[in-house]
Amino acid sequence: MRFLYILTTIDRRIIYALVFLATALPFLFKKSPDVQITPEVERVYRFIDRLPAGSRIVISADYGPSSMPEIQPMLYAICKHAFTKGHKVYLLTHWTYQGLIAGQDGIMSAVRDFNREIKEGKHPERTDTLIEGVDYVSWGFRPGGMAVMLLMNSDIRMAFSRDVRGILLDSLPAMQGFRNLRDLGTVENPKGILIGLEAGFTGDVWVVYGQAQGRWPMALGSTAVVTPSYYTYLEAGQIIGILGGLKGAAEYEQLAGFKGQASIGMLSQSIVHILVVVLIFLGNLGFFLARRK
Amino acid sequence: MFRAPVWLVFIAGLFMASAFFIPVDPFPMMQTWALKWDVIVSAFALVVGIDSLVMHHIRRVQRRQNVLYSGTLLVGFWVTIAWGAFAWWRYGGPFATQSTFLWLFRYIVVPMDATMFSLLAFFIASAAYRAFRARNFSSSLLLLSAGIVMLGRVPFGDWAAAPIFTAFALLLAFYFLRVFRQYEGWGRGIRLVVGIAFLAVGIVLLWPVWLNGQIFPAFRFVVHHIQGLAGWIMEVPQMAARRGIDLGISLGSLAFALRVLVGIERGYMR
Questions:
Q1: Which of A228, A229, A288 sits opposite B171 (nearest CB)?
Q2: Are A59 and A203 spatial neighbours (Cβ–Cβ below 8 Å)?
Q3: Contacts of B213 (CB under 8 A, 6+ apart)
Q4: CB distance A280–B132 less than 8 Å?
Q5: Quick one: which of A109, A107, A103, A108 has its CA closest to A61?
């Protein structure tokens, strides 16, 4: 019984050490376990996969450094998948400079790696490397949130007249024929999709104002904490799918045929989840033993 | 004296709302006009916010209050602006591919922000160990669904779920079967039945019946269905509760917006 009491009164420093080891050690092995694909992630992947080449993937990067480990792999995986299919990627943010730089960093990593793979001959269907303004555009940040979303339903240029480099959108080949978000088509007749990568509640604003008015196809990717709140939109058919947390990103990576940062992080997350549930069990064991006394 | 702002809010609000209900010109045009103003005003609000932040910390430094923290903020603020301006001049833009401005973000902001956020994992683990207790029926239900979702959303969680649930079931059976004698009447009966039910669950999970070529069939059933069960919890009970909360928030927001629009709520003028 004494052993049980020791287990139920663990010092918090020992718990911290256990969490640290459970998080850090798996990264040394760089093992990436297979994850079970959920329908909500598969729907997003299949939707992008079936779009005709040259379709538009608009990504709203509404997150900062604190949620980058969860969301950045989503951005990277979606960009790489889109480039593989020959789609054009457009990036914007509602999170001032944090979202702007996080998004910019993510898309540039995907572009860099994809261009390297082209040179290595891994994409035989493509010989020329990706060019900013032709294959991808970064619109940047505009203050206004909901107002910016609604303006983009009328005319993107009213919200963003230039890209982050200061070049007029009208002069960019990727912007030819792309007037407003309604040009993304509908779920029945898609010409693109808007994907909100969200760490807060900007995704709600996108759905409630932007998508409700424009009716274009939309999906969301979010931190695991925020994900439950987006299931209402999924069930209502307002969004086609959700990438929830690190697992959602790992599922997308697996579907896209590569193992990236999210897949590597899943081993850590698995062990920490199991550790927390075991700790909860021990805590309850102590609770019942104390009540019995 | 205070009528002009109320009328301004009423007209601007009407411009914004009208296009949602009457999507025919001139209403969408009026909405676009209001939205353009919104973006412009938001940009000015950003400037006001920056001014307020900087002045607040300059005053704190002047008064010798938390000089280190306020000083760090001010130095960080000016260094960021100066570096951004330099990157504009040197690389044609702070966000250009080769721009050194991005170093600030990659090597200072990201590690600091990520460190602060990752501390949550340690606190959550410690807090869950100390506070997450099956005190009554509601908290037991919360505990059970949290356990299923946590284990059902990760690889290997399914294999860990079966032994953990078996242990939990036996623990609860042990507890209820020990304490039921201390109660009288219905309380005693309910605790006895609950204890036997948990014991049955524990035994069924561990029962070594050879069924369809499998040992411990119930144990394996948990392993194979935990992920589906976690998905069901997220998509049905969780979503039902969430939708109720969302509807409540939306109705409250609507009522508040109407009060602002018709001038009953004038808190924004103070």
A1: A288
A2: no
A3: none
A4: yes
A5: A103
CA–CA distance, A227 with A45 (Å, rounded to integer):
17
Integer Cα distance of A12 and B187 in angstroms: 36
Partner residue opposite A283 with nearest CB, options B110, B133, B156:
B133
β-strand A136-141 against A192-198: which pairing, if any?
Answer: unpaired
Closest CA to B165 of B128, B202, B209: B202
SS (H, E, C) A250-272: HHHHHHHCCCCHHHHHHHHHHHH
pLDDT tens-place string over residues B12-60: 888 788 877 887 888 888 888 888 888 888 888 888 999 999 999 999 9
Q: What is the pLDDT of residues A80-111, one digit of tens each?
A: 999 999 999 999 999 877 888 889 889 999 99
Give the up-direction half-sphere exposure of residue B219: CA atoms within 13 A in the CB hemisphere: 18
Let me know: does A44 contact A219? Beta carbons within 8 Å.
Answer: yes
Helix B27-62 and helix A146-154, axial crossing angle in degrees, nearest 10: 150
Contact by Cβ (8 Å): A90, A137: yes
Q: A101 and B117: CB-CB below 8 Å?
A: no
Q: Which residues contact B117 (CB under 8 A, 6 or more apart)?
A: A66, A67
CB pair distance less than 8 Å for B125 and A285:
no
List the single residue in B with minimal CA-CA distance to A36.
B155
Contact B122 A147 (CB under 8 A): no
Q: Which residues of B touch A270 (CB under 8 A)?
A: 154-157
**CA distance readout (Å), A232 to A63, A279, B61, B62, B222:** 21, 32, 48, 51, 27
Cis amide prior to B26 (ω within 30 degrees): yes
Q: Interface pTM (ipTM) of the complex?
A: 0.76
